[in-house]
TrEMBL record:
GO molecular function ontology, one term from the record: sigma factor activity
InterPro entries: RNA_pol_sigma-70-like, RNA_pol_sigma-70_dom, RNA_pol_sigma70_r2, RNA_pol_sigma70_r4_t2, RNA_pol_sigma_r2, RNA_pol_sigma_r3/r4-like, WH-like_DNA-bd_sf
SUPFAM superfamilies: Sigma2 domain of RNA polymerase sigma factors (SSF88946), Sigma3 and sigma4 domains of RNA polymerase sigma factors (SSF88659)
Entry similarity comment: Belongs to the sigma-70 factor family. ECF subfamily.
Annotated GO CC locations: DNA-directed RNA polymerase complex
Domain RNA polymerase sigma-70 region: 26-92
UniProt key word Transcription regulation: yes
Name recorded for this polypeptide: DNA-directed RNA polymerase subunit sigma
Gene Ontology biological process terms, A to Z: DNA-templated transcription initiation
Swiss-Prot/TrEMBL keywords: DNA-directed RNA polymerase, Sigma factor, Transcription, Transcription regulation
Residue ranges of every copy of the RNA polymerase sigma factor 70 region 4 type domain listed in the record: 124-176
Length: 186
């Protein structure tokens, strides 16, 4: 065990026993790491500062469940997941505002160019990485994401039940989330 990890274990034990000073030491030690981690996802300094504070709050409230499984990795995973959640909410808000704007104007709705570019990039990335998927998921993922077929169309083409298609797509998404560590495919 490395010296830094031993110190972390001592601090975590003290924090679990109610020592707030130990938590302040932990925050000071890892503030830059957490900031740079969330900044890498959010690409906005103000958002990253806010997210860093929120991450430490999550770490504090989650510490009772932490059981020596590699603190730095555990903490970084919390930071990344939180930053991804923030980013998704921002994208959704932008999309909602775009819809509201389009509905309020009496001109025909225009395509959101940024959204189209993102979708095109996702499809390109997926096409490139399709070979990495387990064989039993490839066809269904390709049909759904790249050829944009419905569950019903996929089921008919492959002589499967719609429920089977749903389950396979669900499992494929789970595999992608686990192995690719990206929010692009969720």
């Amino acid at each position: 065990m490395k010296g830094g990890e031993k110190l972390d274990d001592v601090l975590i034990k003290k924090i679990k026993n109610g020592n707030d000073h130990a938590f302040r030491i932990l925050v000071e030690k890892y503030r830059n790491l957490i900031f740079h981690t969330v900044y890498g996802v959010l690409r906005n300094e103000k958002d990253a500062e806010d997210a860093t504070q929120e991450v430490f709050l999550k770490i504090y409230t989650s510490l009772p469940q932490y059981e020596n499984q590699g603190f730095k990795t555990w903490m970084t995973r919390i930071a990344i997941n939180h930053a991804i959640d923030i980013k998704r909410k921002k994208v959704r808000r932008k999309e909602d505002q775009q819809v509201e704007y389009e509905e309020s104007s009496h001109t025909p709705p225009t395509e959101n160019v940024e959204l189209l570019v993102i979708q095109k990039e996702r499809r390109h990335l997926l096409r490139e990485r399709l070979k990495e998927l387990p064989v039993n998921y490839r066809d269904i993922v390709e049909e759904f994401y790249l050829r944009e077929k419905t569950y019903q169309e996929i089921a008919e083409d492959a002589d499967l039940k719609v429920k089977t298609v749903e389950v396979k797509l669900y499992r494929a998404r789970q595999w992608m989330k686990k192995h690719w560590k990206e929010d692009d495919f969720s």
